[in-house]
Amino acid sequence: MSQKYHHLNEFILGPNKGILAIMHVLSHDGYRVMCDLPLGDPCDNPESCRWTKFLKSRAITEHLCHAYPEKGPALLPSDKKALASVLTWKEVEAGQFNVQASKLAFELFYKAFLFGGTADEAVVAEHEERLAKVLDVYEVRLSKNKYLGGDEYSLADLNHLPCLHFLVGTPVKKIFDSRPHVSKWCTDALARPAWAKVVAMM
């Protein structure tokens, strides 16, 4: 029986694209139900809480990796040392990269798309500078390993895709292009067949 996944409209919200990507990677036959959750804590609404099990996209992607290990490549390695590396860089994505990248994506894409606004150039400059420092760390890491978690593509890489997709279509792309190992990693990640399927749905 197919598992049902409820989440916000993935054509608008970037993180949900990561969920779609991993479903394609794992060739998972679950299906999606578009829904709108109220602002604030969704569990303030008993009706939404009847079916909501996971609300965060990273929790959902990790759950799918654990739930369907036999499908597709191992995005979370079984080797304990390799897994520790992947989980470390997964945390770096969430706590360092995404903090800056999501603000840039909002200013440079969502602000106009959702609200008809224009980017605040001062905010863009501030977070571009901060993201550049994160990418300096990535450049060192990727000069020694093909992917962030090690030699194999993993969930640590996949979780970057939604923000990467938007940012490489903006002037911020230059901070990726100016770092050769980061640039190569971006090109590889964004060219993945599973991600291409997500992009085709947009």
TrEMBL record:
**Pfam families given in the database record:** GST_C (PF00043)
UniProt keyword tRNA-binding, yes or no: no
Q: GO CC terms on record? A: cytoplasm
Q: Where are the transmembrane segments?
A: none
Q: Which GO terms describe its molecular function?
A: glutathione binding; glutathione transferase activity
Keyword entries, A-Z: Transferase
* Swiss-Prot/TrEMBL catalytic activity: RX + glutathione = an S-substituted glutathione + a halide anion + H(+)
Q: What is this protein called?
A: glutathione transferase
SUPFAM superfamilies this protein is in?
GST C-terminal domain-like
| Enzyme Commission (EC) number | 2.5.1.18
Listed InterPro entries: Glutathione-S-Trfase_C-like, Glutathione-S-Trfase_C_sf, GST_C, GST_Phi_C
Q: Which GO terms describe its biological process?
A: glutathione metabolic process; response to toxic substance
Tell me which residues make up the GST C-terminal domain: 79-202
Tell me the protein family, please. Answer: Belongs to the GST superfamily. Phi family.
